[in-house]
Design goal:
Helices cover 33% and strands 18% of the residues. The protein has 258 residues and is α/β, with parallel strands linked by helices.
Length: 258
């Protein structure tokens, strides 16, 4: 396994903007193909357990365990918009046995919105490969009085911003940035309620603690089928093949894409 650590911020950020998850090694990978891996590998997930990043990392760990005939474990290190987990990997030996399951939120967004980091984001990691892309779905809690994007926008416009809230996986997360973009383009305001990851944000939507939020399609779909969440539209420019009858947000807010 090899990667080029000298990519420019623009190139890496552009690449990750379309990616949900990307494994990265500490820069200066020292492992050799002849002996790697000969001991346990740790995959660090910078978000809590239960959401799409965590679940995908565990699928990857199972696959690697089989292919490498070596133990591969997932450790969740959430907090500070994912940068706590990043710091763990950045300060680990560059031997290929500590892998960061980075996301566009934690790798491309967080360094641009946080004042200080314990590591140099451009030098600390060596990208390995793309694992997953996942559309986001604009969702509302079951009791929220909107079944379409136009109904949602109309409801929000008729209520003060502090009366309608939206959940996110945390400040600077993809779900946060997507909602900020939507509010800016649709000229509406809602109250931001940040959580410590996608799983607790989803629980808030299901319970009605939060009214609106973006949820990854693979996570939202089974919950919506159970009636504990309602999907209104996809954040992508084209409708999802898994939900072709569900419109895109861009069909109501032209040009929207996240």
């Amino acid at each position: 396994m090899s990667a080029h650590a000298g990519m420019s911020r623009r190139r890496v950020s552009g690449w990750l903007a379309a990616a949900a998850a990307l494994p990265l090694f500490p820069a200066g990978l020292g492992a050799t193909e002849d002996h790697y891996p000969d001991r346990l590998i740790k995959i660090i997930v910078p978000w809590p357990a239960g959401a799409i990043t965590d679940m995908t990392a565990r699928l990857l760990a199972n696959q690697w365990s089989t292919e490498f005939s070596q133990a591969v474990v997932v450790e969740n290190k959430p907090g500070a918009s994912g940068t706590i987990g990043h710091g763990v990997v950045a300060h680990s030996p560059a031997d290929g046995y500590t892998v960061l399951f980075g996301t566009n939120s934690t790798y491309a967004i967080a360094p641009n919105i946080l004042q200080s980091l314990s590591y140099d984001n451009d030098k600390a990691f060596a990208p390995v490969g793309l694992v997953l892309r996942s559309p986001q779905m604009l969702c509302v809690s079951p009791a929220f009085p909107a079944n379409t994007v136009p109904e949602l926008l109309d409801h929000v416009q008729k209520h003060p911003s502090n009366e309608v809230n939206f959940a996110s996986a945390g400040p600077g997360s993809t779900s946060h940035m997507a909602m900020e973009l939507l509010m800016s383009m649709a000229q509406i305001r809602m109250q931001h309620v940040p959580y410590r990851g996608g799983a607790p944000a989803l629980q808030a939507l299901m319970s009605g603690e939060a009214s609106v939020g973006f949820v990854d399609l693979s996570t939202a779909l089974p919950v919506a089928k159970s009636g504990m969440l309602r999907m209104l539209a996809a954040s992508t420019t084209e409708r999802s093949a898994l939900q072709p009858n569900l419109p895109t947000i861009a069909e109501t807010v032209p040009g929207f894409q996240s």
